[in-house]
Amino acid sequence: MLKFSLRQIMTLGVALGITLPALVLGGLVLTERRERDFALRVQEPLAQYTQLLSSAMAMPIWNVDKAVATQLIGSVMRNPDVVEVTVLDEFGKVFVSGAEASRQTSTVLRQQRSIVMEGRTIGTVTVALSTYRMAQQWWGDFVQLGLALLAQVGISFLLVFLLVERRVVRPLYKLQMATAKLARGELDQSLDWHRRDEIGSLAHSLDLMRTALGSLIAERDAKNADLRQELHDRLQAEEALRFTDAKFKAIFHASPLAMTVSRHAPGHPIVDINDAGLRQFGLRREALIGQGHGVLWRWPRDQAHVLEVIEHTGHIEDFEAWLCRGNDEDDAILCEISGRLIDLGSEQLIILVLEDVTERKRAAEMIWNQANFDRLTGLPNRHLFQDRLEQEMASAAREGRTLALVFFDLDLFKEVNDTLGHEMGDNLLQEAARRLRVGVRQNDLVARLGGDEFTLILSGLADIADVHQIVQDALLRLAEPFLLGGQQVHISTSAGVTFYPQDATLVETLLKNADQAMYAAKSQGRNRYNVFTPSMQEAAQKRMRLINDLRVAVAEKQFSIHYQPIVELKTGHIHKAEALIRWHHPVDGMVGPADFIPIAEETGMIVEIGDWVFREAVKQVAVWRRSHHAQFQVSVNVSPMQFRNEGIAQAAWLAHLSAMGVPGQAVLVEITEGLLMDAGHNVSGQLNVFRQAGIGLSLDDFGTGYSSLSYLKKFDIDFLKIDQSFVRNLTTDSDDMALCNVIIVMAHTLGLKVVAEGVETQAQCDLLTAAGCDYGQGYLFARPAPAGEMTLALPRRSTGSVEISRP
Question: How many helices and strands in the chain, by DSSP H and E?
Fold first, then answer.
C-alpha cells in the first residue's frame, strides 16, 4: 500500500482543488457555446432553406418548370454547408435535385417539408446540411480555451503551493521534530514558538504536555522503587507458598478419591484434577484443564445447587449427583460430593471431592428391591404392600378420605400350572400383573402377595362408585384369553373389596375383610367380585371352624358311605350302586357333601378322603359280589383335585383291589367334564392306568359342561350320566326330552351306556325307558342309604313289569 508524506498530500490536495473546478467551469462554458453555435449555424439555416424551397417550388412543380426549380436549388447550394437538396412530386418521383459530393459530410442533418398549393400537397422538399465546418471551428475554440485554463491553473497552483509550504508544512514539520524529542524522553528543551495561530496553540499545548510528562516520570520513578521492594517481599512469600502448594499437590494426587480444583469465576474453569479423578472419569488432564466444571455434570441443576450452597455456606457435604464419564451423557456415575471454598486473596478456588458410589447405591437398591418387589412380576411384594397400606390408611385418616382395598385371586390357576407347566404359569402371572396395572391410576398400588393372589390399593377416592368400575374392568381384562406357548388359555378371577374406615380401622382386619369378600365371590361361582359385609365375617369364621372340624373328621374317620342303587330300566335289576360320602359331625349332626367337599378340595384333604372312600367301596363291592351278584359294580366319585400334583396312589388302589380279591371291573370311576377339558399328560396317563386295570370310566353330569364328543372318543368312556337338571322337568314334548333322546342315541352310537340321574316319577322312568335309556338312578327307586339298608331288588307286578313305589 502506497504511503504519502504530509507535504505530498497537501500538494495533491491543492492541485486537485484548483484543477477540478477549472475543468468543470471550462466544460460548462464550451458546452453552452457549442449548443448556441449549433442552433445559429445549423438548425436555423436548415429550417429557413426548407421553408423557402417549399414555398418557392409550388409554382415550378405546378407548371412543371424544372429550369426554375433548378435555379432555386442552385441558390441554396451556394451555402458550403448544404450537401444535398431533393424535390419530389406528388407521386414520389424526383422532380429536381442537387448534391455536392466534394463537401465534407461528417454528420449530416436532414429536414423534409411538404409543398402545398391551394390546400393540396403536390410534392416534398428535403434539405441535407453538414456540420463538418462548424465542428472544425468548435475544436479550434476548445484548444484555445484549454490553453488559457492551463495557464491560469498553473499560476494559481504555484501561488497556493508557496503559501501552504510556508504557513502550514514547515510549521508542522517543526512540531513533528519536537514530538519526536518528547518520544525519546528529551524533556529539558522548551518549544520556542511565538505564532498566535492554530499551530501556535498546538505548540503551546505540546509544551505544557512536556512539563506534565516530566512530573509524571519523576513520580513513576519513586513508585518503581517502592514496587521493587514489594516485589522482593512477594517473591519470598511465593517461595513459601510454592512449598505449601507442593505439599498440597502431593496429598491431592495421592488421594484415592476423585478431586477437582476450579476457579470461582464464570464457567468455573478447572485448574487441576487428581489421578484418581482422571481414572474415574476416563479423561486426559490436558483435555480437561481450562474447561468449565460443567463438562463433568450430567444435570446442570445439580451443579447450580452445589455452587449455590458453597457460595452461601462455604462448604457442602454428602450431596449426591450424576456425573458424566468420558464426555458421554449416557455413561454416568453417581457421586457423593463434598467441597469447600478456598480464598487465596487474589482469587477463590473451589475444591470438590467426588466419590463414586454407583456400585454401592446399586447394591443397596438391589437389596431394597429384592426385599420389596416381586421378582417374577416386578410388582410390590407383601412387605412393601403392607408398608404402603399403613401409610395410605394414616393419610386417609388425616384427610378424612376413603380408601379401598381389593384382593384378586386367579381362579383355577393351579390347573394351568399342572397342565402346562410352571413356566407357562409364570408367564400367565406376568401378563395378569400387566393387565392389572393398565387400568389403575398412577397413585394406586398393585401388589402381588404370592402365588396367584394380587392386591390393589385405591386411595384418594372421590366417589366409591369408581371402585366398582375399576374392579369390574380389571375382571374383564383378566377374563380375556392368555396366549401361553401358542395356546389360548381362559381363566377367571375372583375379587373381594373392603373400605377404610367404613369396614375396619386396623390393617390386619382390613386384610381379613378383603380376603373374606374374595372367598365369598369364589363360593358364588367365581369370575366376580364381592364387597365385604359383616355377614361375611360370620361366614368366614364358620368356614374356618368347618376346616378345623374337617381335619379332625379325617383323622377320626367321622365319615360313612351311603349307597344309591342304579337300576337297569328294562329289567328292574340292581347290579350297580353309587358310593356317596356322608359326614356325621359330633355337634352339628349330618353335614352334606356340598358343604364340605369344596373345602376338602381347596385344602387338599380330598386326596385322603377320596382314598378312604375308594377303599371302603372296594370292601363293600366285594361283599355284594359274593352275596348278591357276581358282576356287581360300585361307582366312586373322584375329584379333579385328586389327579393333580402327584395324582392318585393308583398302585396302592390296585394293590387293595387285589388284596380284596376284586377285579377292576367291580369299580367304576366317575369323573366330570371339567377334568377332561384340562386333562394334560398326567391326567391322561392316570386314566389309561385305570382302563388297563379294567376299571371303567363314567362321565358324570353330562350335558352341563362342554359335552364334547372328541373327549368321549379320546378317553374311552364307558358310561354317560345325564344330569338330573334334564330329568327333573321331563315331559313328552319338552326340550329336555329332546335333549335326552339326542344324548341316548349319541351314546349308543359310540357304544356307551347311559344312566339318568334324578329320576323321581314313574312318568320320567317310562319316558326314559321308551327312549332307550339303559339305567336310572333317583328317589323313585331308592334314597342313598348305608350298605346294610340299601335296596338290592325292586318288587314286580303280576304282569311281570317293575312295580316302583316312592321310598
Answer: 27, 26
What are residue 189's phi and psi, to 5 degrees? Answer: -90, 125
Percent of the chain with pLDDT over 90: 28
Q: Is the dihedral of CA 78, 82, 88, 93 positive or negative?
A: positive
Of residues 76 and 437, the one with the higher pLDDT is 437
Contacts with 710 (C-beta within 8 Å, 6 or more apart), sequence order:
none
pTM of the model: 0.47
Residue 191 has pLDDT above 70, yes or no: no
Mean pLDDT confidence for 610-638: 94
What's the CA dihedral at 474, 475, 477, 481 to 10 degrees?
160
One-letter amino acid of 676: L
The mean predicted confidence, pLDDT, of the chain is: 83
Q: Residues 697-711: what's their mean pLDDT?
A: 70
What's the Cα-to-Cα distance from 249 to each of 258, 350, 654, rounded to whole Å? 13, 15, 89
Query: What's the per-residue H, E or C state across 245-298?
Result: HHHHHHHHHHCCCEEEEEECCCCCEEEEECHHHHHHHCCCHHHHCCCEHHHHEC
All 3 cell numbers of residue 313?
455456606
Helix (H, G, I), strand (E, B) or coil at 384: helix
Q: Which residues contact 34 (CB under 8 A, 6 or more apart)?
A: 138
Q: Tell me the pLDDT tens digit for each residue of 196-211.
A: 677 767 777 777 777 7
CB 511 within 8 A of CB 540: no
What is the per-residue burial (b if ≥16 Cβ within 10 Å, else e) of 679-697? beeebeebbebbeebebbb
Lowest-pLDDT choice from 142-146, 260-264, 409-413 = 142-146
Those residues whose C-beta lies under 8 Å from the C-beta of residue 146, and which sit 6 or more positions away, are 26
CB 110 within 8 A of CB 126: yes
All three cell numbers of 124, joined, read: 416534398
Note whether 621 and 613 are within 8 A (CB). Answer: no
Q: Report the pLDDT value the prediction gives residue 458, as an integer from 0 to 100.
A: 92
pLDDT for 630 beyond 90 = yes
pLDDT classification of 455: cutoffs 50, 70, 90 = very high
Give me the residues paired with residue 321 across strands: 335
Query: Which one, of 717, 729, 732, 643, lies nearest residue 680 by Cα?
Result: 643
What does DSSP say about strands 667-671 and 633-637: parallel, antiparallel, or unpaired? parallel
Cell numbers placing 214: 516530566
